[in-house]
Amino acid sequence: xxxxxxxxxxxxxxxxxxxxxxxxxxxxxxxxxxxxxxxxxxxxxxxxxxxxxxxxxxxxxxxxxxxxxxxxxxxxxxxxxxxxxxxxxxxxxxxxxxxxxxxxxxxxxxxxxxxxxxxxxxxxxxxxxxxxxxxxxxxxxxxxxxxxxxxxxxxxxxxxxxxxxxxxxxxxxxxxxxxxxxxxxxxxxxxxxxxxxxxxxxxxxxxxxxxxxxxxxxxxxxxxx
Amino acid sequence: xxxxxxxxxxxxxxxxxxxxxxxxxxxxxxxxxxxxxxxxxxxxxxxxxxxxxxxxxxxxxxxxxxxxxxxxxxxxxxxxxxxxxxxxxxxxxxxxxxxxxxxxxxxxxxxxxxxxxxxxxx
Lengths: 225, 122
Known about the structure:
Radius of gyration of chain B: 20 Å
Number of helices of chain A: 9
Largest sheet of chain B: 3 strands, mixed
Strand content of chain B: 25-35%
Oligomer: heterodimer
Number of strands of chain A: 8
Strand order of the largest sheet of chain B: 2-1-6
Strand order of the largest sheet of chain A: 4-3-5-2-6-7-8
Distance between the termini of chain A: 52 Å
């Protein structure tokens, strides 16, 4: 018995990146643009999608990621668009994020040829989803004003990897001591120049801009960082 | 939680390179921008590697400090907070020179001596 050092020189997430590239190639071949939609639990991802997806000027489908259950997919089913539920619990050990392989396993259930835009609603979590690309064209994250203005400083990895930040629940601003200027200052410090929109999924305020952004991405507009 | 997903990714990569041989240690470079807690990564790696060729393997992590460079004025600095605007000119076009590593450099495996393998024809 003797010991040997074996050179690896590989990013530990290379395997995920390879599958993400395969997903991306499939999406490109079918002409589907893909948005990875992320936030902490309860920031309002599903409500925002309910608000805008029916009005996006494109054929839209949703891949709904949750640890368990189909509550969010059931809500979105009312929009009469293809919605596929992906649970990370059975077989995946209750993962707190979607990775490229989980998304790949669901592609067969999605009518990609009939879609222009696929929105992947990730598991609510501000950490792990930032690490695992799934083959998306753009990353959008939602940060609710109820979460506090220091969120970008606490979760820089997430805030730095997205192309658009939606600041949600602005209808509640008058009831909170949330300092919006400070939040935007922190956001710019962590991700200088990143695009943001102030929205309220509850009242619809500002969501038209998000709907138009999705329509533009579906038509092939680059999602600039 | 983050470290659990990452340790699974490490295990998968290491096992692929180990090709069935028992692994005694793993050498990694981890950048501070990855928001990884080294002790936590070590702890979860110990759990996910149970029952595999990596069981009991030491995870040796070299922590790499973040280093940024401004594309506009050329300033280079090591940020202590996750602030990505140029500290010198306030520019937004800042490249990450170091700190995003999550690389497995090498592994140490045990190999069986194949006794009698080179003795010659039967």
